[in-house]
Amino acid sequence: FIGLGAMGLPMTRNLVDAGHDVTVASRSRGPIEAAVKAGATENNGPAGVVDASETTILCVPNSPEVAEVVDAALPALGAGKVVVDCSTIDPEVERAQHERVTAAGARYLEAPVSGGTVGAENGTLTLMVGGDADVLEAARPALDPFAGFIVHVGGPGMGQVVKLCNNLLYAAQMLATAEATTMAVKAGVDLHKLAEVLTHSSGDCVAVRTRIPFEGVLPDSPASNGWAPGFMTDLMAKDLDLALEYAGKAHTPLFTTGVVRQVLGAASAAGYGREDFSSLGKVIRELAGV
Q: Which of these three, 112, 129, 155, is where a domain ends?
């Protein structure tokens, strides 16, 4: 496993708990030490991990880092090796990694994940898989320990396109939830009552159920827990940048996505970049004076 961040480390723990022999590499010592304590083995960089593994899983922040890992891993790639990228990156960059890895004689899948850090901890992530179906079947034993739902959505790049569609919807939900709850508070509405109504009405959505951006309304929400990130503001902004770029090339309008991206930018500028992306609600609250 390469990339022991907020998602990668708990995914690794689930693999170890499932009985897999897991070899790891990451940039920071702290996560490596935590993975080793959980039962994993450290190796020297991507090539070392690939050499020691049948299936190598990547989970890193962006397109350049995925390409960098593949660069470093190429000398160890060959027949019998499978690489699975669980990062969220540019679909065209991902297609290029499929080509590079298969040209080296190995097999490749993309499997971006949804479910945040809670899903990673609980082993209930949704995986959107792009690549060959037979490669998925070969890699499935290494994916099942951290996955609750695996869907083969198509060929190379399609997993990333589906992931970007999911995230632009979630981001739009979040902004609408922030606006609705801020308006309600300013009018004197009890947010507990509002949440009760919304979760039994047409306004129901994941953002309403998990991320109302006011403290004390949902006990497990980021707002009620110091804005601890299940999914950071800066990462959601990165994903919307990817969606906007891809849609631009495809001549597809993304009006709402453009607006949400600006609000996320304001949240980052206000110092909320490493908080949960629901902290965009603080921008809306501040503008409304609540």
A: 155
Closest CA to 16 of 112, 123, 107, 119: 123
Q: How far is CA 194 from CA 8, 175, 221, 275, in A?
A: 36, 16, 16, 25
Q: Which one of 137, 155, 173 terminates a domain?
A: 155
For the chain, how many residues are written?
290
| Rg of the Cα atoms in the chain | 20
Domain that holds residue 178: 161-288
Catalytic residues: 163
**Is residue 59 a contact partner of residue 80, using CB atoms and an 8 Å limit?**
no
pLDDT reported for residue 96:
98
Pairing of strands 23-24, 41-42: parallel
**What is the pLDDT, as a whole number, of residue 234?**
97
Contact yes or no for 203/179 (Cβ under 8 A):
no
pLDDT confidence bin for 198, thresholds 50/70/90: very high
Residue 179 lies in a domain: yes
On whether both 42 and 95 belong to a single domain, the answer is yes
CATH number of 242's domain: 1.10.1040.10
pTM for this model (two decimals): 0.94
pLDDT tens digits along 245-288: 999 999 999 999 999 999 999 999 999 999 999 999 999 999 99
Residue tagged 């897999």 (tokens) = 20
Q: Are residues 136 and 201 in the same domain?
A: no
